[in-house]
Amino acid sequence: MKLNLGSHNKRIKGYTNVDALGLENVDIVHNLTEYPYPFEENSIDEILMTEVLEHISWRKTDAVLKECFRILKVGGKMHIQVPDCGNMMKAMMNDWISEIIPHKPESEDQVLKLRKETGKTVHPNRWLMAFCGAQKHEFDAHLNIFTAERLEDYIINAGFNKWDFKEDKLGWKLKVDIWK
Protein backbone atom coordinates (compact mmCIF):
# COMPACT_ATOMS: atom_id res chain seq x y z
CA MET A 1 0.00 0.00 0.00
CA LYS A 2 1.17 3.51 -0.82
CA LEU A 3 -0.13 6.54 1.11
CA ASN A 4 -0.45 10.18 0.13
CA LEU A 5 -0.61 11.75 3.60
CA GLY A 6 -2.16 15.22 3.71
CA SER A 7 -3.40 14.70 0.16
CA HIS A 8 -6.09 17.39 0.19
CA ASN A 9 -8.16 16.61 -2.93
CA LYS A 10 -5.24 15.78 -5.27
CA ARG A 11 -5.46 12.25 -6.63
CA ILE A 12 -2.16 10.50 -7.42
CA LYS A 13 -2.60 7.21 -9.24
CA GLY A 14 -1.69 4.22 -7.10
CA TYR A 15 -1.86 6.05 -3.77
CA THR A 16 -4.45 5.97 -1.01
CA ASN A 17 -5.28 9.55 -0.07
CA VAL A 18 -5.37 10.44 3.64
CA ASP A 19 -6.42 13.90 4.81
CA ALA A 20 -8.03 15.58 7.82
CA LEU A 21 -10.66 17.08 5.52
CA GLY A 22 -13.35 14.88 3.97
CA LEU A 23 -12.84 16.23 0.48
CA GLU A 24 -13.42 14.68 -2.92
CA ASN A 25 -10.67 12.09 -3.65
CA VAL A 26 -9.88 11.58 0.06
CA ASP A 27 -10.03 7.84 0.76
CA ILE A 28 -9.40 7.97 4.52
CA VAL A 29 -10.28 10.96 6.70
CA HIS A 30 -7.68 11.13 9.45
CA ASN A 31 -5.91 13.97 11.26
CA LEU A 32 -2.17 13.25 11.15
CA THR A 33 -1.74 14.49 14.72
CA GLU A 34 -4.00 11.71 16.05
CA TYR A 35 -2.16 8.49 16.89
CA PRO A 36 -1.97 5.70 16.12
CA TYR A 37 -2.63 5.97 12.40
CA PRO A 38 -5.17 3.44 11.13
CA PHE A 39 -2.45 1.22 9.64
CA GLU A 40 -0.54 -1.74 11.04
CA GLU A 41 3.13 -1.52 11.95
CA ASN A 42 5.44 -2.23 8.96
CA SER A 43 2.50 -2.32 6.52
CA ILE A 44 3.09 0.61 4.14
CA ASP A 45 5.38 0.45 1.09
CA GLU A 46 5.59 4.16 0.40
CA ILE A 47 4.52 7.47 1.94
CA LEU A 48 4.23 10.85 0.22
CA MET A 49 4.09 14.01 2.34
CA THR A 50 4.15 16.81 -0.21
CA GLU A 51 3.66 20.28 1.29
CA VAL A 52 2.18 18.77 4.47
CA LEU A 53 4.70 18.66 7.31
CA GLU A 54 4.89 22.44 7.62
CA HIS A 55 1.17 22.39 8.53
CA ILE A 56 1.92 20.23 11.59
CA SER A 57 2.88 22.01 14.83
CA TRP A 58 6.59 21.94 15.55
CA ARG A 59 5.58 20.40 18.86
CA LYS A 60 4.03 17.40 17.05
CA THR A 61 6.41 16.94 14.10
CA ASP A 62 8.58 14.36 15.88
CA ALA A 63 5.52 12.26 16.76
CA VAL A 64 4.15 12.44 13.19
CA LEU A 65 7.44 11.26 11.70
CA LYS A 66 7.81 8.51 14.32
CA GLU A 67 4.32 7.31 13.40
CA CYS A 68 5.33 7.28 9.72
CA PHE A 69 8.40 5.25 10.69
CA ARG A 70 6.16 2.81 12.60
CA ILE A 71 3.83 2.08 9.68
CA LEU A 72 6.48 2.06 6.93
CA LYS A 73 7.81 -1.37 5.93
CA VAL A 74 11.50 -2.10 6.29
CA GLY A 75 12.94 -1.00 2.94
CA GLY A 76 9.93 1.28 2.42
CA LYS A 77 10.35 4.81 1.11
CA MET A 78 8.98 8.15 2.25
CA HIS A 79 9.16 11.40 0.29
CA ILE A 80 8.85 14.75 2.05
CA GLN A 81 8.61 18.17 0.43
CA VAL A 82 8.42 21.36 2.50
CA PRO A 83 9.24 25.05 1.92
CA ASP A 84 12.96 25.78 2.21
CA CYS A 85 12.88 28.48 4.87
CA GLY A 86 16.67 28.48 5.06
CA ASN A 87 16.87 29.72 1.48
CA MET A 88 14.00 32.10 2.11
CA MET A 89 15.91 33.63 5.05
CA LYS A 90 18.94 34.04 2.79
CA ALA A 91 16.70 35.77 0.24
CA MET A 92 15.63 38.30 2.87
CA MET A 93 19.14 38.91 4.16
CA ASN A 94 20.54 39.38 0.64
CA ASP A 95 17.71 41.51 -0.81
CA TRP A 96 16.77 38.83 -3.35
CA ILE A 97 12.97 39.28 -2.95
CA SER A 98 11.21 41.08 -5.79
CA GLU A 99 7.94 41.23 -7.70
CA ILE A 100 10.07 40.84 -10.84
CA ILE A 101 10.02 37.10 -10.09
CA PRO A 102 6.54 35.67 -10.82
CA HIS A 103 4.64 34.27 -7.86
CA LYS A 104 3.34 31.44 -10.05
CA PRO A 105 5.90 31.12 -12.86
CA GLU A 106 5.18 29.40 -16.15
CA SER A 107 8.36 27.34 -15.78
CA GLU A 108 11.55 26.97 -13.75
CA ASP A 109 13.47 28.30 -16.75
CA GLN A 110 11.49 31.55 -16.64
CA VAL A 111 12.59 32.13 -13.04
CA LEU A 112 16.18 31.07 -13.67
CA LYS A 113 16.43 33.52 -16.60
CA LEU A 114 15.03 36.38 -14.51
CA ARG A 115 17.39 35.52 -11.66
CA LYS A 116 20.36 35.73 -13.98
CA GLU A 117 19.19 39.11 -15.29
CA THR A 118 18.15 40.70 -11.98
CA GLY A 119 19.84 38.86 -9.10
CA LYS A 120 16.41 38.39 -7.50
CA THR A 121 15.18 34.91 -6.50
CA VAL A 122 11.63 34.94 -5.15
CA HIS A 123 8.35 36.89 -5.29
CA PRO A 124 7.33 38.55 -1.97
CA ASN A 125 4.12 36.51 -1.74
CA ARG A 126 5.92 33.19 -2.28
CA TRP A 127 8.46 34.25 0.36
CA LEU A 128 5.68 35.04 2.84
CA MET A 129 3.81 31.81 2.07
CA ALA A 130 6.95 29.77 2.87
CA PHE A 131 6.59 30.93 6.48
CA CYS A 132 2.83 31.46 6.84
CA GLY A 133 1.11 29.21 4.28
CA ALA A 134 -1.47 30.25 1.71
CA GLN A 135 -4.21 30.36 4.38
CA LYS A 136 -6.96 29.27 1.97
CA HIS A 137 -8.66 27.14 4.67
CA GLU A 138 -8.21 26.37 8.39
CA PHE A 139 -5.46 23.78 7.85
CA ASP A 140 -3.53 25.95 5.36
CA ALA A 141 -1.33 27.84 7.82
CA HIS A 142 2.25 26.88 8.58
CA LEU A 143 3.00 25.76 12.12
CA ASN A 144 6.63 24.78 11.55
CA ILE A 145 9.52 26.00 9.40
CA PHE A 146 12.31 23.91 7.93
CA THR A 147 15.91 24.30 6.93
CA ALA A 148 17.78 21.29 5.55
CA GLU A 149 19.53 20.87 8.90
CA ARG A 150 16.31 21.08 10.90
CA LEU A 151 14.52 18.58 8.64
CA GLU A 152 17.49 16.21 8.88
CA ASP A 153 17.29 16.36 12.70
CA TYR A 154 13.60 15.40 12.56
CA ILE A 155 14.40 12.49 10.22
CA ILE A 156 17.10 11.17 12.56
CA ASN A 157 14.89 11.62 15.66
CA ALA A 158 12.15 9.53 13.99
CA GLY A 159 14.55 6.59 13.64
CA PHE A 160 15.50 6.82 9.97
CA ASN A 161 19.14 6.36 9.00
CA LYS A 162 19.09 6.69 5.20
CA TRP A 163 17.93 9.74 3.25
CA ASP A 164 18.79 11.74 0.16
CA PHE A 165 18.00 15.41 -0.40
CA LYS A 166 16.96 16.16 -4.00
CA GLU A 167 17.83 19.36 -5.82
CA ASP A 168 15.18 22.04 -6.17
CA LYS A 169 16.47 24.28 -8.96
CA LEU A 170 14.60 27.28 -7.60
CA GLY A 171 15.63 26.73 -3.99
CA TRP A 172 12.07 27.24 -2.82
CA LYS A 173 11.52 23.67 -1.56
CA LEU A 174 13.32 21.01 0.43
CA LYS A 175 12.76 17.60 -1.17
CA VAL A 176 14.03 14.47 0.52
CA ASP A 177 13.64 10.73 -0.05
CA ILE A 178 13.90 8.64 3.12
CA TRP A 179 14.13 4.87 3.56
CA LYS A 180 13.40 2.67 6.55
Would you kindly provide a written description of the structure presented here, covering whatever features stand out?
The protein is of the alpha/beta class and 180 residues long. It has a single domain (2-83, 136-179), classed as 3-Layer(aba) Sandwich (Rossmann fold). The chain has helices at residues 61-71, 85-93, 108-118, 124-132, 148-158; strands at residues 2-5, 16-19, 28-29, 44-50, 72-83, 162-166, 173-179. A 7-stranded mixed sheet has the order 3-2-1-4-5-7-6. The longest helix is centred in the middle third of the chain and has 11 residues, at 61-71. The radius of gyration is 17 Å and the shape is globular. The two termini are 15 Å apart.
What is the fold's blueprint, element by element?
Blueprint: E1 2-5, E2 16-19, E3 28-29, E4 44-50, H1 61-71, E5 72-83, H2 85-93, H3 108-118, H4 124-132, H5 148-158, E6 162-166, E7 173-179
Parallel strand pairs: 1-2, 1-4, 2-3, 4-5
Antiparallel strand pairs: 5-7, 6-7
Helix pairs in contact: 1-5
